[in-house]
Specification:
single chain; 120 residues; five-stranded mixed beta sheet; 4 helices; 5 strands
Length: 120
Amino acid sequence: MNRKLDWSRDNILAYEFNEKVSEEEYKGIVAEVEEKLSEYGKVRIFARIPELVGTELSTLDDRLRFLKDNDLERLEKYAIVGEAKMVETIAKGADALTGANIRHYTLDEEEKAKQWIMED
């Protein structure tokens, strides 16, 4: 089940993705990010992806397009936490393609990722 994590607050949005993100879920996340951008001007996103499942990669283009369409300077930090080599590759590729401040962490480094997202 995909879910928003309970430690999300202010301009920090934290999620866990355990299955393919549906179009409805994606639209809800985009609406939430846009709301936070309107309220705070910048956002930080934390995504825990324990396993890359099914066709998870099929929405990558939509995600990158969303980042590009929403002024990347307004995305302060994006932490992607997951073990799969593909998760690391996605993080590195997205960082290079978008110029956003995206970092990959392993599941063992989750606390380090949280600290990075929360620090000023």
